[in-house]
Write a structure and sequence with these properties.
The chain is of the alpha/beta class. The chain has three domains: about 120 residues, Gyrase A, domain 2 (2-Layer Sandwich); about 130 residues, Four Helix Bundle (Hemerythrin (Met), subunit A) (Up-down Bundle); about 160 residues, P-loop containing nucleotide triphosphate hydrolases (Rossmann fold, 3-Layer(aba) Sandwich), CATH 3.40.50.300. It has 16 helices and 13 strands. The strands form two sheets. The chain has a seven-stranded mixed sheet with strand order 3-4-5-6-2-1-7. The protein has a six-stranded mixed sheet with strand order 9-10-8-11-12-13, with helices on both faces. α6 runs antiparallel to α15.
Length: about 450
Amino acid sequence: MINNETISAISTATGEAGIGIVRMSGDRAIEIANNIFKPIGKKSLDISENRKLLYGHIYDGSKLVDEVLIVKMEAPHTYTREDVVEIYCHGGIISVRKILNLTLDRGAVIAEPGEFTKRAFLNGRLDLTQAEAVIDLIKSKSEISYDVSIRQLEGSLSGKIEEIRERVMAMTALIVANIDFPEDEIVEATYKSLDEDANYIMDNLNELIENANRGKLLRDGINTVILGKPNVGKSSLLNGLLRDERAIVTDIPGTTRDVITDYVNLDGILLKITDTAGIRDTEDKVEKIGVDLAKKSIEDSDLIIAIFDSSRPFDDDDREIIKLIESKKSIVLMNKADLKRAVSEEDIKDLLGDRNYLNISVVSQGEILKIEDEIKELFFGGEIKESSDIYVNNLRHVRALKKARDSMYEVKKDIKNEMFLDLLEVNLEDVLSSLGEITGQTTTEDVLDKVFSEFCIGK
């Protein structure tokens, strides 16, 4: 599966910058770079010291392209475990593209998305969970998601998976020995001892799966939708959470007709906040599209902040909103507490049932802090803090863990029924296969293509 061609790519973002980087990896990386680089000094790149920056120029034949620093890193002690060359040129669009094209003209091929990291995986430098942590690290939008990615890159998840695999393999080896060598002096595989091992494995699988939802929130943030009728204070709430005038606020119902999305950092956790069009029955075609988009955004949300206007009597639109959030995790706000109330406690109970609510005015920043505290309480028990827990934050990992757990459940059932040992062995092999999918020990090229297609080119 390893492509033996030398790959090349721009590893910095497109646009004006102090420096740009062109990276190559493969057997011909040093040869190709040496062909276009002229050092200021006597040592060419091929005979220079490993991992030592050289100063010089890139030439296209006799034509000067750029003034650069260049470094070679010889295999196997590199990111890809192949020869790697990095060229540090002036930032911008033209210079890096010219140098990239020169490397391609001299025999390199353009790297696919994530191909450098894919080679690191295929050459055994990283396992698949660590490779996926690289893209999570790049895409991190909060301190905590960054810290989780760093721990996974260091091998926290793969170490835990390997610990579980070793227990499964020990169990399998004991069963095989008892099947194949029943007359030899070996440890007897009693159903009691096997059940103890199975319980240990199941407990660890359940713990990882239970942490998955929190892991997803730490990585992706809390997908939060603000929902309510027109002119109840949704845009004011968005602006208050953002500490910025992001949305237009007027006393004209229907001002917000589209979905507005922005991000808030809440003690290191990302809130992806969507302000929606007001929910109401309307004949306005444009506004109706906005209302439909608002209803659709509910489906993918982690949290709904439902906001009601306590200075106006409730109506059918308010009751529809309550129905929309019945099965969703939500925070209910009775807004405009600074105005005269037009609803009684009985009216509120009739609308909300047993739901708790906050009686607030979203134009007050102090009240906004109450909402943030409520979010932290709802998702993190009141305090967001970094822990040493191992978080599964990838849907692919969760699916594989659940497959392993299903197979382990069959093992436990067979142990309870004292079935033949060879039946246990079959299900244990399924557990090993599912766990191997996570770290890449048992995987397919299609899975690898899907994983690395999410990377940027040059990483």
